[in-house]
Amino acid sequence: xxxxxxxxxxxxxxxxxxxxxxxxxxxxxxxxxxxxxxxxxxxxxxxxxxxxxxxxxxxxxxxxxxxxxxxxxxxxxxxxxxxxxxxxxxxxxxxxxxxxxxxxxxxxxxxxxxxxxxxxxxxxxxxxxxxxxxxxxxxxxxxxxxxxxxxxxxxxxxxxxxxxxxxxxxxxxxxxxxxxxxxxxxxxxxxxxxxxxxxxxxxxxxxxxxxxxxxxxxxxxxxxxxxxxxxxxxxxxxxxxxxxxxxxxxxxxxxxxxxxxxxxxxxxxxxxxxxxxxxxxxxxxxxxxxxxxxxxxxxxxxxxxxxxxxxxxxxxxxxxxxxxxxxxxxxxxxxxxxxxxxxxxxxxxxxxxxxxxxxxxxxxxxxxxxxxxxxxxxxxxxxxxxxxxxxxxxxxxxxxxxxxxxxxxxxxxxxxxxxxxxxxxxxxxxxxxxxxxxxxxxxxxxxxxxxxxxxxxxxxxxxxxxxxxxxxxxxxxxxxxxxxxxxxxxxxxxxxxxxxxxxxxxxxxxxxxxxxxxxxxxxxxxxxxxxxxxxxxxxxxxxxxxxxxxxxxxxxxxxxxxxxxxxxxxxxxxxxxxxxxxxxxxxxxxxxxxxxxxxxxxxxxxxxxxxxxxxxxxxxxxxxxxxxxxxxxxxxxxxxxxxxxxxxxxxxxxxxxxxxxxxxxxxxxxxxxxxxxxxxxxxxxxxxxxxxxxxxxxxxxxxxxxxxxxxxxxxxxxxxxxxxxxxxxxxxxxxxxxxxxxxxxxxxxxxxxxxxxxxxxxxxxxxxxxxxxxxxxxxxxxxxxxxxxxxxxxxxxxxxxxxxxxxxxxxxxxxxxxxxxxxxxxxxxxx
Length: 831
Description:
The radius of gyration is 30 Å and the shape is globular. It contains 13 helices and 48 strands. The strands form 11 sheets. The protein has a 10-stranded antiparallel β-sheet with strand order 8-9-10-11-28-23-22-18-19-40, with helices on one face. Helix 6 (489-500) runs parallel beside helix 8 (536-548), helix 9 runs parallel beside helix 10 (643-658) and helix 12 packs across helix 13 (759-777). It is of the alpha+beta class. A hairpin with a 2-residue loop joins strand 43 (785-792) and strand 44.
């Protein structure tokens, strides 16, 4: 028995020791922000064998014609950026090496890039690459620096030493593109004008890629080494391990790999390498992508094949999907970029750039391919602008059809304009450090200059609280539909007064499903009051009383998502390129409505204007608009209505609404920011691709001080201590969605996703979360967010212009900062 007790004691002690060790160290995940990268090592050196184009106060710009590489020398830090790798074609080096006399080999036989074929080397060097569809409708690539089938010429625009044009003639396919290059004291800008894309194969153009290897990190090189000999003393490989006889074999077997997984014999039995590739210096740093709030993809070797990150700016265009329909499954959707921006940082506050598009953004994708050990040894990022799509044309109700490209009259004509702004050092000179923080500040500064964002003034000393109320939705009856009412207008007033009695008074409210038909079937063009929810008179009286108490009440209305029971589809619904209505099948087959469609832009605008006429009778100060700010599909009703045209229509509608009301919107795209006062349900987590290493509040830093930004609903799994700290860290305010009655009453409606909303369950949580967040963010209301520093993994310091520092400790251990101890999973405000 004593032995058993001793063994039990040792076991318990061992478990306690292990537990303490686990809790003693905070291990960040890709939901967190890790410590800054190590400093980059570099030699201050201007490029050789380049032509000087222009020199400004901050930059010197150079060009290498034979490789279409633009070099940007930043005088502020002596850092040299190149738009491509600036490497020779391996085959050319091998041929020259093979023919060189022995005494010249060490000079001629320079290292070559491992796993960069001739087309890939051209891609890695080029300023511009096109993707095109071949006769089999397969996408192929060809780059401006290709050694055949392409001719490119750079020339200066007469009288303007800051404007150059790279004239690119692709011979197969036959396409001509002029790339305008503008050299400024912030960096470089590219422009492609649609009317300058010419050639008989222009309609086969799939996409344009710009500077795909600018800022790339990684790479491996193969160095000169005498070739392998066979038993007769004949060379069977050249000096880089490639087979001498590359055309005399037939057959197709399998690759032979060594114990490390490296290919040593190709499919014809020929030796591949006689020397291992040597890793190049991996620049420490990361790519910033606008995934959710912002995500970093650090420069690391993942040692396995991983999928690239692809972000479709303003979301996927469902009207250009392969099929005219899509399906909404029961999982969390990808978080597509709401702004056309990305960036790359090298080192720690040393060198970086942020790239943002001002034209063509509605057709822009952001691609990041990781160093995954299979295809290339680089991490590289670039913008992709899409011109043509492949889709399945159905020609009968049985679903028969064929694949085809968009016809010329179906393609959206658009220009491209993208700016690369380079950042240097720690920000002490211009306030924009060479990091994701400086990228956010630079982009924010640009948006303010363009009038897209406007700094707001506030006299508030306590943070705002957002409360949305689900009032009703429709369920199926034996004949037709019935409304399920879970909150009346008087219930809203009672709940608000109850919360005000807890000392919370800076409240704004959204009313969802406030009319007949509820959220799903309520008319988009007018208000039809449901007396069970409240008469028009009751709405007026309640809203007036709450307004007198300083509470802002708004109606929530979706002007884009429609269904056959809500409005007629004919003339109202957006059409796919196939001419069928664009639609989405919902994941819940038991819901009253399981297929949704999308309103044409001009209908959405008309409905909004008509709806505001009914709102004139209500004493509301704000309006919560849904759909138009985040759903953007091309429309093929009666011809082509482009995404850009739809954006213009939406902006006209927003502008009229904003002239009368404050505008609230859920996760709005950048094209609507000019009119937004409250950004609702801002993302605080990224999609969490495997290649994403960090999550950062890039979006929140861009928007800070220009509008109120709210967190996701706290009653949907965003209420833990760590979540409250994230609200403080990301500068977002609490929000809840509530009902008076239990949420299970909504199970037979399309609002079943609001599964936990009953106010009595969340009354205490509302007060707790609000007070904790307010004690921190209430002290920096109206102050600029200057910096965000990871002092240790799990410990963040946010610095504000009023001298306040907020230290957030996500870890399970206390942390001491400037002599002040911050408890585990806690924060402190330091003045």
